[in-house]
C-alpha cells in the first residue's frame, strides 16, 4: 500500500477534501491521509510515496523533515530544496530568458546592514547607487516589495522619488526590489498543477480579501486566455513547481507576470469560491495519484525546473518542455 500524505497548518477546507477525493477514487494500492510525523531520524525513509506540502514555508522543522523524506524517495510537492533556494527576483530574472513578460525590476541592497555587519562587509557595493539610472529604468508609479516573501507584507505603491526614499528608510534590513507598476485592465490568478492543469481565475486585487476572486466574471478574449495559459506552463516548467499560482496584470493586451512564486497557494473554499475549490481538489487528487503511480523507491521523485537541466547540460533555455519530473 503506497501512502499519499498532506502536511498542512491552519487551513481547514482543502486538506480534508483532498484526502477524501483521493480515497473516493478507489485506486488499488493507494491511500491518502493527513501526514503523521514523530521521530525524524537522519537518512530514515518516511511512509509516504507522495507528500503534499502546504505549510513548510512557516515551519522550518517541516522543511528539514521534507528534505530528508525526499532524499529517501518521497515525491514532495513542491520540491523543498528548490523552494528553499528560490526568491522573487530570481523568478523575474528567469522569466526574461524563457519568454514570459515581466515588469521592469531591479534588486536593491537593504537600507540597513544585516545583523553583525557594517559598511566594511558590503564594500564591493558602489556608493551611492546610481539612483538616476535606476529611477529612469523603472519609472513611477512603481511597486517596492521584498525580494522574498508574500501576503502583501511590506508592499509599497510609490509615485515619486521622495515617496521612494521614505519607504526605503522604513524597510530596514529587508532586501527589496523596485518594480514598474502595471496599470492593468484585467488581473488574473492562475492555479497550475503538475505543470499541466491550468485554471485561470479573474481576480480583483483592489477588493477586500473575500471578494477578490471575481464571481460571474465577464468573458475574456480567447487569444489572451491562450497566452496566459502558455505563460503559466512556461513559468512552472522553468521553475519546477507542481502546485503554484501565478498572477498576471494585463496592460495593452499583454499579460505581465507579477507574483508567481506561491508554492502553497490559498485553496480555501471561502476565498476561492466553490467552483475553483472543486477544480483544485480534483486536480490535486489526480496529480497525487499520478505521482504515486510513477513513484520509484529510493530514487529522486522530485520535480526540478528545466532551467537547471539547461545549466547542467549547457542547453539553450526553453520555457515550455515538460521533461523535468
Ligand atoms: N508591478 C506591479 N504592477 C501592478 N500591481 C502590482 C505590481 N506588483 C504588485 N502589485 C499588486 O500588489 C499585490 C501584492 O504584490 P505581490 O507581488 O503579489 O506580493 P505578495 O507576494 O506579498 O503577495 C499584487 O497582488 C498586485 O495587486
Ligand atoms: Mg501576491
Report on this model:
With 325 residues, the protein is an alpha/beta fold. Among the domains are: 2-83, Rossmann fold; 104-180, Dna Ligase, domain 1 (2-Layer Sandwich), CATH 3.30.1490. Helix content is 34%, strand content 20%. It contains 10 helices and 12 strands. The protein has helices at 13-24, 60-71, 80-85, 88-98, 131-138, 161-170, 222-239, 269-272, 274-294, 306-312; strands at 2-7, 30-34, 48-53, 75-77, 105-108, 142-146, 156-158, 176-180, 186-193, 197-202, 243-251, 254-259. Strands 2-1-3-4 form a 4-stranded parallel beta sheet, sandwiched between helices. A 4-stranded antiparallel beta sheet has the order 5-8-6-7, with helices on both faces. Strands 10-9-11-12 form a 4-stranded antiparallel beta sheet. Strand 11 and strand 12 form a beta hairpin. The radius of gyration is 21 Å and the shape is globular.
Amino acid at each position: 500500500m503506497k501512502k499519499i500524505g498532506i502536511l498542512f497548518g491552519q487551513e481547514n477546507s482543502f486538506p480534508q477534501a483532498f484526502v477524501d477525493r483521493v480515497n473516493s477514487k478507489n485506486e488499488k494500492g493507494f491511500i491518502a491521509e493527513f501526514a503523521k510525523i514523530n521521530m525524524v531520524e537522519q537518512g530514515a525513509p518516511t511512509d509516504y510515496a507522495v507528500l503534499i506540502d502546504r505549510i513548510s514555508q512557516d515551519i522550518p522543522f517541516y522543511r528539514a523533515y521534507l528534505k530528508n523524506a525526499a532524499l529517501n524517495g518521497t515525491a514532495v510537492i513542491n520540491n523543498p530544496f528548490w523552494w528553499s533556494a528560490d526568491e522573487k527576483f530570481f523568478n523575474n530574472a528567469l522569466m526574461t530568458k524563457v519568454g514570459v513578460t515581466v515588469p521592469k525590476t531591479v534588486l536593491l541592497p537593504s537600507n540597513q546592514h544585516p545583523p553583525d555587519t557594517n559598511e566594511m562587509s558590503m564594500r564591493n557595493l558602489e556608493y551611492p547607487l546610481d539612483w538616476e539610472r535606476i529611477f529612469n529604468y523603472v519609472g513611477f508609479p512603481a511597486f517596492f516589495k521584498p525580494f522574498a516573501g508574500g501576503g502583501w507584507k511590506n508592499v509599497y505603491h510609490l509615485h515619486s522619488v521622495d515617496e521612494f526614499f521614505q519607504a526605503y528608510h522604513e524597510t530596514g534590513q529587508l532586501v527589496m526590489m523596485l518594480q514598474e507598476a502595471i496599470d492593468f485592465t484585467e488581473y488574473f490568478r492562475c492555479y497550475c498543477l503538475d505543470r499541466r492543469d491550468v485554471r485561470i481565475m479573474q481576480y480583483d486585487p483592489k477588493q477586500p480579501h473575500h471578494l477578490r476572486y471575481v464571481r460571474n466574471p465577464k468573458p475574456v478574449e480567447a487569444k489572451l486566455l491562450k497566452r496566459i495559459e502558455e505563460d503559466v506552463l512556461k513559468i512552472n516548467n522553468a521553475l519546477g513547481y507542481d502546485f503554484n499560482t501565478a498572477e498576471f496584470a494585463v496592460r495593452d493586451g499583454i499579460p505581465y507576470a507579477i507574483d508567481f512564486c506561491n508554492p502553497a497557494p490559498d485553496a480555501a473554499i471561502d476565498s476561492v469560491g466553490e467552483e475553483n475549490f472543486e477544480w483544485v481538489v480534483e486536480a490535486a487528487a489526480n496529480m497525487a495519484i499520478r505521482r504515486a503511480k510513477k513513484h520509484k523507491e529510493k530514487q529522486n521523485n522530485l520535480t526540478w525546473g528545466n532551467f537547471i537541466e539547461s545549466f547542467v547540460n549547457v542547453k539553450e533555455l526553453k520555457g515550455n518542455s515538460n521533461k523535468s519530473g
